[in-house]
Amino acid sequence: MSFQETYESKKVSAAKAVSVVQSGDWIDFGWTTCTPDALDKALAARTDELTNVNLRGGILMKKPAIFDREDAGEHFTWNSWHMSGIERKMIAQGCSFYSPVKYSELPRYYRDMDASIKPRIFMVQVTPMDKHGYFNFGPNASHLAAVCERADIIIVEVNKNMPRCLGGYENCIHVDQVTYIVEGDNPPICEMGGGAPPSDVDKAVAQKIVELIPNGACLQLGIGGMPNAVGAMIAESDLKDLGVHTEMYVDAFVDISKAGKITGRKKNLDPGRQVYAFGAGTKKLYDFIDDNPELMSAPVDYTNDVRVIAQLDNFISINNTVDVDLFGQISAESSGIKHISGAGGQLDFVLGAYLSKGGKSFICCSSTFTDKNGNLQSRILPTLHPGSAVTDTRANTMYLVTEYGIVNLKGLTTWQRAEAIIGLAHPSFRDDLIKEAEKMKIWKKSNK
To answer: Do 246 and 157 have their domain in common?
Structure first.
């Protein structure tokens, strides 16, 4: 039987495909841009027939149809590996929960997963089948091959708009492995906006970081305004022969590439290739990564492996935080018990960058934010709010950056750290922070 004949024998309607779902099932949805669309809508139509269906995925880019109803939580539960703003709103609906895990561990986690919670069904948006019988996961090699290994039933939803992402390995599934094939409505791939133009604070932080990036550096950028501001500044800089090895491929990398700054010639591993675990952004990004041999779509247990990162000289890791305290503890996941994001790969890149020859990791944030009541609040705190998740421990934090300066915390004792971190705070909060540091016995009278 030819690949096309196999394809036709497995092709069904979305309604037929989701008819296999039973109450009590664990179902995995594709990650970010490959979250199913037609299958999701068909499953939503079966809501009244189902209870206690657990779904897993992450970084939702639009709200699934199964959660449109107010009583959705009585039928479905969403379990997220890394939350987007959409998933945070679903927490309030009582149907969304976070699964704390280092992103780099997901492939192994699936392969070692207890049979009682392994996915019975996997639903994922993919590219059309190629002449060799393969469906490509788009910009989501991530952990999806591992999910396929454990799922009993694999349903692919073909979307002609999905970019075909080349790369290393575990970025495709063969038609012989698929249970059902659904030809969806080919909706545009969900875009993650580039955000507002960089603020003066973003630019000030970015400038301090770019000054410490050498030619030939290998870059990792996190999501958010500040990393994107750094990317924009790099694109306009005199830097050259940069490389990319990152968890997430973002729009900023496209700008840096088109500015001719990325060659990958200096990379110790995968020279000439921009390596990433998943990508999300605007159409500009999807057009750039489609069939682009310069890029390498790879599983996250490769991209985020500390041992791999450590082999890349002059590795530069740039990430955000929500809050930081006077001990240098970084909370990028929550502020108190208010959930914001996930552990992701930040700690892996912080550790890997420090092990890299000439490597540097930067944690950046604005010194303040304005709360919903219009009050100015400091992101630099005496101690993290009760309930805050510590993403990077105080022993791991290297460079900390705000619009007021940049400090390397490595090797500093507690009183030195307190002084250095307070120097990064907004002037309106510094006196109060000093008083709290004194109470905590981490302030010396000789300090400034």
So the answer is: no
- Mean pLDDT, residues 290-307 taken together: 97
Q: Whole-prediction pTM value?
A: 0.95
Residue 191 belongs to a domain: no
Dihedral, CA of residue 86, residue 87, residue 89 and residue 93, to nearest 10 = 130
> What whole-number distance in Å separates Cα of residue 409 and Cα of residue 320?
16
Q: Are residues 132 and 277 in the same domain?
A: no
Say how many CA atoms lie within 13 Å of 105 toward its Cβ. Answer: 14
Range of 419's domain? Answer: 200-439
Burial per residue of 262-294, b for 16 or more beta-carbon CB atoms within 10 angstroms, e otherwise: bbbebbbbbeebbbbbbbbbeeebbebbbebee
Residue in 247, 333, 403, 419 annotated catalytic: 247
Regarding whether 405 and 328 lie in a shared domain, the answer is yes
Quote the CA–CA distance of 425 and 377 in Å, as a whole number. Answer: 11
Residue type, 103: Y
From CA 395, how far away is CA 171, in angstroms rounded?
A: 35
Using pLDDT thresholds of 50, 70 and 90, give the confidence band for residue 405.
very high
Among 55-69, 78-92, 224-238, 360-374, the range scoring the smallest mean pLDDT is 224-238
- Please, which residues bridge with residue 324 across strands? 330, 380
Residues 261 and 121 in one domain: no
Is 436 among the catalytic positions? no
Give the 3-state secondary structure of residue 423.
Answer: coil
- Measured CA to CA, the distance from residue 423 to residue 387 in angstroms comes to 26
Which DSSP string do the residues of 94-109 spell out, in sequence order? T-EEE----GGGHHHH
Confidence of residue 195 (pLDDT cuts 50, 70, 90): low
3-state secondary structure of 319: strand
- Report strand pairing: 380-381 vs 323-325: parallel
Within-domain flag for 178: yes
Q: Left if phi > 0, otherwise alpha if psi is -120 to 50, otherwise beta: which for 260?
A: left
Q: Which two tokens stand for residue 54?
A: 């657990």
Instruction: Report if residue 195 sits inside a domain.
Output: no
Q: What stretches of 94-170 adopt beta strand conformation (E)?
A: 96-98, 121-126, 134-136, 153-158
What length does the chain have? 448
Give the bridge partners for 142, in sequence order: 299
